[in-house]
Amino acid sequence: MSTTQNPILIHAARVLAGAIMISFAAIFVRLSEVAPTTSGFYRMAFGSAVWVLLLAAIPAMREGWQKHWGSSTLIAGFFCLDIWLWHQSIFYIGPGLSTLLANFQVFVLSLVGVVFLKERLHWRFGLGVGLAMLGLWLLFGREWGDLTPDARLGVWLGLLTACAYSLYLLSLRGFQMKHAGMRPEARLMQVTVICGLMLGLINITEGHGFGIPTLTAWLSLIALGLFCQVLGWLLITKSLPYLPAGLVGLLLLIQPAASVGWDVWFFSLDLSLGKLIGAVLALIGIYLGLRASKGSDSIANDD
Known about the structure:
By secondary structure, this protein is mostly helical. It is 76% helix and 0% strand. The longest helix is centred in the middle third of the chain and has 30 residues, at 149-178. The two termini are 36 Å apart. Mean pLDDT is 89; it is low at 295-302.
């Protein structure tokens, strides 16, 4: 094998490993046995501890951590909304489908680029939207009248998650460009800490406690913070710039696809043939949306 191929394989393996780690996020939320907001708080709490340890151990990652807490607060506000909506959606419709809906953010980002940045739409975007909408209809639309009110709410929360996640990504990317001297790891540490405080306050307002009931819950919440909030993100974002766009799209698609698979495996998600086709079409649509988006390399920090 040539030396020029080896680095690509190494970076692809890292992105794949990161995507698989993040694909377990909704599964860990479901296994945590605590309220949706409580699981979000512990994701940030354990994630914050890991970030602080990393920055303490690796001085290069700390650059800029003392500055720009105000802008990080705004980013954290959007991230808090994203996590809160998504975890509620997981509660109502399960890990797989809620994660699939959250990944519709690729279309929101593309539309923002067209409206505000005057970017031109690629044909892949139109085809991707069409396939995703058809998939959405097969998953939920044709049986909408038979869904319970909670299931309908879960679908809407999942789609709102896509919007909130887009705001988070746009604000994160925008302030990183504005404050180019700040390391992204330092920014993520700030955002994670602030988001954790916000979710903690919301958790108290909702009347939930902070008790962790079982060993399974402890392990799930620690894994959520360690692998999904920190390590998965690090693996993906460090290697994305070195990979071709088409390969990036395929690798990032692993996250929602695997989440659906884990939901079937762990929680016996019932997918009829029509719903299975709908999920596949939605995934193909998301892939095409990733390929059409100029910002696809920034869509690594999945939920």
